[in-house]
Write a structure and sequence with these properties.
The chain starts with a helix and ends with a helix. Strands 1-2 form a two-stranded antiparallel sheet. The relative contact order is 0.11. It is mostly helical. It is flat. Strand 1 and strand 2 form a beta hairpin. Helix 3 packs across helix 7. It is built from 7 helices and 2 strands.
Length: 164
């Protein structure tokens, strides 16, 4: 640990060599606009994910707390079920759901076609369906993080509420 701290006061002199010179240049680089912007965006996303997990997780934990004992077991099982699957597999499943040709856009396309069909009966026409871009943006990051972190919000909230 102490050598890692010492490396932060050094500079690269080669591919694998660090000269510990006592410089604060690395710390000044950390507050450059590029890095500061990345840090602030990360903090903002963390705050949004925490808020969304609380908004979704609190009612779920409350429902589990006041559920019948037999139902409570099933609800807790559904909350813990994602822990039994590797995170990488769950991430690829989210990609399959959110991609341009994914299940969400396929469902929206079916709804769009139904609405266009009903509108056609009344003489109104809708433009062709344009799939939503749900991947490779901030929405996908927040959605994925909420999906992964939600059980970590629900289970502690449930544990606390169950003791009250």
């Amino acid at each position: 640990m102490s050598s890692d701290l010492a490396y932060s006061f050094g500079r690269n002199v080669g591919l694998t060599e660090i000269e510990i010179s006592g410089t604060f240049a690395n710390y000044f680089r950390a507050i450059e606009p590029l890095y500061l912007g990345i840090f602030l965006k990360s903090a903002w996303i963390a705050a949004v994910v925490t808020f969304l997990c609380l908004v979704v997780g609190f009612p779920v934990a409350l429902a589990i707390t006041f559920a019948q004992p037999k139902t409570k077991v099933w609800l807790l099982l559904f909350i813990m079920l994602p822990f039994w699957t590797n995170l990488l597999i769950r991430t690829y499943a989210l990609i399959a759901v959110l991609r341009t040709e994914g299940y969400v856009n396929q469902g929206l396309e079916v709804l769009w076609g139904a609405v266009a069909g009903i509108g056609g009966l009344f003489g109104a026409s809708l433009p062709a369906f344009e799939p939503l871009e749900l991947l490779h943006n901030n929405f996908a990051v927040v959605f994925g993080l909420v999906y992964v972190q939600l059980p970590f919000m629900v289970l502690p909230l449930y544990a606390v509420m169950n003791r009250l």
